[in-house]
Every structure is written in C-alpha cells, then in structure tokens.
Amino acid sequence: MKVKPDYADAWNNRGVCLAKIQQYQEAVKSYNQAIAIRNDYSDAWNNRGVSLMKLGIYGEAIACFDNAVKIKPDFFSAWYNQARCYSLKGEVKVALKSLEKAISLNGGNCQEMAKNEPDFENIRGNELFHKLIAV
C-alpha cells in the first residue's frame, strides 16, 4: 500500500486479514479506505458490514449491506449477512425477507449455511425459517 496507496483491492484485502484475527475496528478502517477509493466496491461494503456486525454496530452494518446490494443486486452474501444482522437485532420479518432473497440467489448453499448459523437463533423457531431452509 506504500507503493500504490490508491489500490482499493489492497485495502479490502488488508481488512479481510484484520477481520480474520478479530481486529474488527482496524478492519473497518481498511474497508473505509477501499470504499473511499472506489465507492462502488460491493465486496468492501459487505466486508465492512460484517466487521461492524461483529462489533455490535448493527444499524451501520445494515446500511453497508444495503449499499452492497444496491451496487450488486444479486450479491447473495450481502443479503445473507443482512439477514444475520437483522436476526441479531431481533427484527424477525426483515431477517426472513433478506434470507429469502439470499436463498433465491444461491439456493442450496445458502440453505445449508443457514441451518447451522448461530446468528439465526432469533429466527430459528419461525415457521418461514424452516420452510426457507428445507432442502
């Protein structure tokens, strides 16, 4: 990044590495740099949202996922992460709607992930959740 500080992918990748070692605040700073360079970087928006979610900053995380899907409407990971975040907030209807969208885009893979997703504890007992994850 010293060689090419305006390389958005490097900032995003740095954020991914920081998030992997649970340095979420620093990861968010890296994603901010990536987004400042390239505002239409859907992966950086999604990754920023995940780190914010891990920090418990749900409203801002949801805004990141919203940006990611505005840029790339078929971005199933952003829809899935948005569902996770809404579930953590206890917003069942919106969580299920986002999960339904993610599953419509990625079917079986998404259903399998959702079955064991700890962030879906708040919606796991919902009848629609069971219909959505039925494989």
Would you spell out the secondary-structure blueprint of this structure?
Elements: H1 8-20, H2 24-37, H3 42-54, H4 58-71, H5 76-89, H6 92-115, H7 127-133
Helix pairs in contact: 1-2, 1-3, 2-3, 3-4, 3-5, 4-5, 5-6, 6-7
* Percent helix range: over 70%
CATH-defined superfamily of the largest domain: Tetratricopeptide repeat domain
List how many beta strands DSSP finds.
0
Multimer state: single chain
Q: Which series of helices and strands comes N to C?
A: HHHHHHH
- Average the pLDDT over all residues and give the rounded result: 94
Q: Which fold does the CATH topology of the largest domain refer to? A: Serine Threonine Protein Phosphatase 5, Tetratricopeptide repeat
Low-confidence stretches: none
- Secondary-structure class: mainly alpha
Count of helical regions: 7
Rg result: 15 Å
* Biggest sheet details: none
Shape: elongated
